[in-house]
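Fold it.
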Amino acid sequence: MTSVNDPQPAKPKTLNRPVRRFVKRRGKKLMRWAAKFQSKQSIVPDTPFIDNSHFPFLTEFEDKWETMRDEVQEILKNREDIPGFEEVSPDQYRLAKARQWKTFVLYGFGQQLPKNCSKAPVTTEVLSRVPHVQTAWFSILAPGYHIPAHTGVTKGIVRAHLGLIIPKDREKCRIRVQDQIMAWETGKVFAFDDTYEHEVWNDTDEERVILLFDFDRPMRWRGRMLNNLMLWLMKFTAFYQEPKKNLADFEDRFEAAARRADANLEKLSD
């Protein structure tokens, strides 16, 4: 188990580059200004948790959650080849340590990862009907792990969580968003604004698996234009480029590992 009191991991050297530090500082200031404008432009409430009634398409996730759970259970047969979040995005080194928070990514920055998506066809199909889905992954949290308090990048998106494999003592597996706490439940989805401070605890001896996905916040046209511009600009930064390259590498590695596992099973059955 990983304790909240564990020492902070070393900062990856790539994050210390002067240009990257400059872009990150400027970017944070820009995002803070944009958040105020996006809040005023939002069509849905600017609250930590946002009621599902504002997003009718979430119903299909609850209707098909068992199939999605079955798909991720197949993926988890090769769990050692699923990367830790910090391996995909070095910027997350304070939140994800020692591969205790793993991510099997289906969508990254609005683009499907086709090889990964082929492992979860029903999940991918349902995600394709989410208006302007930006990111989506199976989020796999190790027993006893705590994700420290942090805030998201932009108020231009809404985040949703669908419970797939939840510890039996689910009240001990929970997320705090601002001053509100929610425990995951199998087959249930909820939406929230991750620009509010949030943190996660899995105070159980079981693994927690959810489907996490982000989609564009419903906003008036000026808010949508600003959000599209900011997402486009982000694609020129290391915050986007580095994970994009890493995702492609890990996608190929997982595909190769799955093929080896299938080949070994065939040999055993001969």
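Residues 2 and 145 are 5 Å apart (CA to CA).
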